[in-house]
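Quick one - inputs below.
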Amino acid sequence: MNYIIGAFKPPCTISITFADGKTRKKASVKKDNGQTAMVPLFESKENIVGEVIIEPMHGKKVEHNGVKIELLGQIELYFDRGNFYDFTSLVRELDIPGDLYERKTYPFEFSTVEMPYESYNGINVRLRYILKVTINRNYVSNIVEYQEFCVRNYTPLPTINNSIKMEVGIEDCLHIEFEYSKSKYHLKDVIIGKIYFLLVRIKIKNMELEIRRRESTGSGPNTYVETETLAKFELMDGAPVRGESIPTRLFLSPYELTPTYRNINNKFSVKYYLNLVLVDEEDRRYFKQQEVTIYRLQEES
Amino acid sequence: MLPDAEDEEKWLAEGIAGIQHNAFYMHRALDSNDLKDALRYSVQMLSELRTSLLSPHKYYELYMRAFDELRKVEMFFREETARGTISVIELYELVQHAGNILPRLYLLCTVGSVYIKSKEAPAKDVLKDLVEMCRGIQHPIRGLFLRSYLCQISRDKLPDIGSEYEGDANTVNDAIEFVLQNFTEMNKLWVRMQHQGLTREKDKREKERSQVRDLVGKNLHVLSQIEGVDFDIYKETVLPRVLEQVVNCKDDLAQHYLMDCIIQVFPDEYHLQTLETLLSAFPQLQPTVDIKTVLSQLMERLSNYAASSTEVLPEFLQVEAFAKLSNAIGKVIEAQVDMPIVGAITLYVSLLTFTLRVHPDRLDYVDQVLGACVKKLSGKAKLDDSKATKQLIALLSAPLEKYNDIVTALKLPNYPRVMDHLDNGTKKVMAVVIIQSIMKNASNISTADKVEALFELIKGLIKDMDGSQDDEIDEEDFKEEQNSVARLIHMLHNDDPEEMLKLVRHLQAQDGDVIGEEVSATPKKIFQILHQTIEELLSVPSPELALRLYLQCAEAANDCDLEPVAYEFFTQAFVLYEEEVADSKAQVTAIHLIIGTLQRMNVFGVENRDTLTHKATGYSAKLLKKPDQCRAVYACSHLFWVDEQDGIKDGERVLLCLKRALRIANAAQQMANATRGSSGPVILFIEILNKYIYFFEKGNPQITSSVLQGLIELIKTEMQSDSTSDPSADAFLASTLRYIQFQKQKGGVMGEKYEPIKV
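Output:
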């Protein structure tokens, strides 16, 4: 029995560990099966150092044509399932062809790896980084093990961060001027602003600020756009009169935002918009959408 | 669609149920120190306040429920931060994650309260943030209640002088700024309530607005309670800012309420010292604002303040309170073109009351007020608005009541001019009031000028007003009025005859418009005037009274030694008697008066006297009834015997009179016998007997004891023959005889005289 089972089971186990695995920060990622898992967190140009341990099943011999470890950066478009675009691919040969009889440890190191894009798990696209260990074999399929890790890249405070100020309206009906103090926000930032009512001829019921994420994938005729509203934040209750100014203070931290991604490897973009919505008593919605840039600010610690 | 009361009750019940439901889970979270759930359920609980279905009254009930719960939340926040589970700053951010603004802001205020208490941030910054963030609620009712909550929780945390939150960067100015801003925003919301909803529900809305007005007013109350608001700050910051808001909101309800509020909550001395600023706001208010009530309120408070202590009076003078008030009222009236006349007059009444209470010594002020009122009324027809008339009467009565002396009012040139604007009926009423005031206070009117002024005031009672002849003058009322006028004469008095004469001449002028040349007060002149006056009575006609007065004048002339004058008066009296006194009873009275007066006259020479006595006796004998004749004739006997040093003592003619009286008595007796078959009045004989005794005692030589004896016998016989005895006559005779007996027994000269008489 055991033998038969053994024939279908991989003849060895592969585990990939990181050198600083215990101390390194972790981030949660969503796995294919919908569960979340904690994976180590890296940023670009870090050294990725660790060990691969291959342990053959008890009393088994593993013949192989060589062992290698790859660091892959992949973009997976769901409408094109199964096709991965590797924008980064680094390989380290761990062993020359031969036989493995017992547990063997292979240290590996990728130094200062360029990982320009962040891990991302969107609606139509996924960007992920993995370490892939392959034991090449003849006649039978290769033995492969993956270890995912997460990449986040931090941005310094932007030197130029203009406010957004704009006057919009419908002629003889509604004129407002809104102002957001910045055009670039980090993930834990606060959107501070003001909305001035210059002319109000409609009966406004309330006003809210939405944060919308627009994910576009593909290019040309195969472009897919998905828009999600991540936050609905009521700014005002009731009908203002001319001359009122309504303060805005929206903390971004409760929402699951990512930085803005522009044209990642010509495959996808993720953009964020602030959508100011005024609702009148007949539930008509008047809105003005404005793009803001979200970035990940290096946390001080 | 009007939500009816039943629906509203249902909605309220649902709201309360929602609050209770969420509060239950919230309490559980609080008990288990579960911050996340506590926030979640408190947000849900507060979401019940987002309703638009309730009237302010019902919403208040809901609010109070939530308010109670929020106090628990606040306590929890305080414990959590004290325990260090979360910093207050983090908590301040955390509550702002709530997506709905109303629960978010209620929680923010609640944490804010804890934040200030923790002193981890300057109170002013937190307050400023809160008051600013609350702008997000633009719905009037929800906004008002939210800000009211803010006001409530911040009251004890203002960086006031002496407060623990004051110091460093926190000054009382921040506290003031905060309250002012909250006030301004609340007022804006309150005013906005008016402009929402349907036009036809205007009344309902106004009612609803008054239900929540105290929420707005509370801010002013808080301001007045801030220790640090001293006079300078009040003058430089608080008042101008509040007034600016009041004026700019252009809403009559708000303006009325808030002006009233300002006046009520801040101290009187502030008002006094900032009068100019305060008053300058009034003309800028909406025309529909009931300014008069507010201003009256202010003036009443100021006058109470003035009355509270004499020390503050100089302040009033120093700030020229009167001038400012007067000026302001003028401006208000000018600005509010549509103000009904009654409003203007009411304002003047208030100002007058103020003046009388604060500056009772300044008659010129009083007159100024009246003058201003006249100016306002001038060019208008007489008032036909009963309310306005009432106010005008109040205006006119006020000085009378205050000074208790019409004389003071008479010094006011504008007083009669105000009266001119009353309709005739009211004018009369007012005139009666004036007269009553004079009577009540026994005010002496002592100069001609005053008389003139007074009669100008009451001319409504004296002359028929041009054109408007009221057909339905009530006879009784009219008499009442005229009586009042007549009584007034007694209040005109001056010890100086010259002046008194002037008074009298003015009085005369009232009716005839004839004013003769100025004359000095010689007795002759005075009698002339008296004569003229009495003559007037003839046209009434009231001859009996005139006759009496003539006689009195004659006597007065007698005292002044003016024979011709006295004679003239007597002549007039007799003429009157002849021509005007027809009633027999009146004749009896008149003739007795004439006899009595004539008896006392000593100024007449023999000839004049003879003429007059002759006349008198003649008329006496011509009276209609015999007994009257008899009595008048025996009274005439006194005309010939004046029991004085140089008095005439004509014994013969006395006897003649008495004898004539006896004859008449006899005739009367016979007439009685003839007509009724009974003997006549013996009493006449006894009366005559008494006259005999009188003259006998006075030493009239013609009256002897034998004459007396004869008369007594006669009477006795008469009485015996008389079948029906008259008990009064019996008693009279008995006491007369007893008197004679008594004199006899007493002895002396008189006793000897009586000795021969047997009774």
